[in-house]
Design a protein that fits this description.
Elements: H1 5-17, E1 24-25, H2 34-46, E2 53-58, E3 61-67, H3 72-81, H4 84-97, H5 103-122
């Protein structure tokens, strides 16, 4: 399965909106299967963006999964790509440069775009 940065962003928003500090079970996101969502939660956990991840399989399919709260790094990443305009500018800049849409590049590009906005605001 290929990593889908749009889905990752949606998952981070979904976890953030679930304000309690308990596990979230079988998160649902329109247009995506449970297998796709569970896979992306697993890689978010491996990357250190969510606190916990557990999965139960049955008949070679995800029976259920649970994911914990966002980590500090998860919040930091989401805050960098929260605004739709920053997210779209980041994706467009990455595409224009022919770069892969990977976490480190997304973080760097979004940080650069945010810095440009701040500098423009401050008249620098």
């Amino acid at each position: 399965m290929q990593r889908d940065m749009e889905l990752i962003r949606k998952i981070l928003f979904k976890i953030e909106e679930m304000v309690d500090n308990t596990a979230k079970y079988n998160i649902k996101i329109d247009g995506y299967t449970m297998d796709q969502i569970a896979y992306h939660c697993a890689i978010l956990y491996e990357g250190g963006y969510v606190f916990n991840y557990k999965v139960q399989y049955s008949d070679n399919k995800v029976h259920y999964f649970e994911v914990g709260r966002l980590t500090w790094e998860g919040h930091e990443f989401l805050d960098k790509i929260r605004e739709e305009s920053i997210w779209n500018d980041t994706k467009n800049a990455i595409k224009e440069k022919g770069l892969p849409l990977v976490f480190d590049i997304v973080k760097s590009m979004s940080t650069g775009i945010i810095t440009q906005v701040i500098n423009s605001y401050l008249g620098m």
